[in-house]
Design brief:
Blueprint: E1 8-11, H1 27-38, H2 41-50, E2 52-57, E3 78-82, E4 85-90, H3 94-101, E5 106-111, H4 112-118, E6 124-127, E7 135-137, H5 139-149, E8 163-166, H6 175-185, E9 190-200, E10 208-215, H7 220-233, E11 244-248, H8 253-261, E12 266-267, H9 271-279
Parallel strand pairs: 1-3, 4-6, 10-11
Antiparallel strand pairs: 2-5, 3-4, 6-7, 8-9, 9-10, 9-12
Helix pairs in contact: 1-2
């Protein structure tokens, strides 16, 4: 968990900067346009929560690794003051951060939902300043996002409940792609992942999806952070009355049976294979 936030306030007259000349849109840009033109705010918020966001910091990182809310790190974000308001600066790429900073600056890379979890509404947030897709988050909006994340809850099942396991009858469009992107870009501790269907035979239940991950990580806080990250990546793909179990294969029980019933949709490439593919 990030223990402390050391704040640096830089007084400036405006947070507006020269627009970037690169017209290539990022997935977050596309979601922002979709939200502003077609009133699909949920599309933007879900993309933000799932995106890797770069926060400029006072202290430079030791290496180019991504962090997560459960890491035992301390970051010192740069806070900008403009017109009496303080802003936490956020960017969806290192290139955009560098273009805004105009100098060497450290950064922390976190999933959007981790920023929502760890940061309070004490500041406004300014996303992608210096582009035509600049977005400002106000304190009430940040509080709403925090409340939205709390809707992700653990499901409990009574001991002795009969469980039926198999392949999913239907997989929502885009779900596999979202999970694969998440695993390959941020959670490389996961060796493989399976998507099955589970039915707990009890009143009020119906078949639902179950995601099983295989990892050598034993640290409970890291596993919880990975599970939360994956849970957020499913938002927007499930109906209001639908949910997904996220399980770690510990060699027994429901998780093990799912790995026997379905093939993995994701298998992590080994480091040597990545090098071979890069050379080709």
């Amino acid at each position: 968990m990030i223990k402390q936030l050391l704040l640096l306030t830089i007084l400036i007259s405006s947070i507006a900067y020269a627009r970037e000349s690169n017209t290539d849109m990022t997935p977050l840009d596309q979601a922002y346009v979709e939200a502003t033109k077609n009133n699909k705010e949920s599309v933007f918020y879900n993309e933000f929560l799932n995106s890797t966001i770069f926060i400029p910091t006072i202290n430079a990182p030791e290496d180019d690794k991504h962090s997560r809310a459960g890491d035992d790190d301390t970051i010192s974000p740069i806070i900008i003051e403009s017109d009496g308001e303080k802003y936490l600066m956020l960017f969806d790429s290192k290139e955009r951060l560098a273009s805004w900073a105009q100098r060497e600056v450290g950064f922390a890379a976190l999933p959007g939902h981790a920023i929502v979890e760890m940061m309070g509404p004490d500041f406004h947030w300014a996303l992608n300043v210096g582009t035509e897709y600049t977005k400002t988050f106000v304190p009430d909006e940040i509080e709403w996002l925090k409340g939205n994340l709390k809707n992700i809850e653990e499901q409990s099942v009574s001991s002795g409940t009969q469980v039926l396991i198999g392949a999913p009858a239907k997989i929502p469009n885009g779900l596999i792609e979202s999970l694969t992107k998440n695993l390959s870009s941020r959670n490389n501790e996961v060796k493989s992942a399976y998507l099955g269907q589970v039915y707990y035979v009890q009143d009020g239940e119906k078949p639902h999806l179950a995601l099983v991950i295989e990892t050598e990580i034993k640290d409970k806080s890291i596993i919880e952070a990975i599970s939360q990250d994956l849970a957020v990546s499913t938002k927007g793909f499930l109906g209001e009355d639908e949910y997904i179990d996220i399980l770690v294969n510990d060699g027994n029980g429901t998780a093990l049976e799912i790995t026997k019933a379905v093939k993995p949709f994701y298998v992590r490439k080994s480091s040597w294979l990545k090098k071979v593919l890069t050379r080709q």
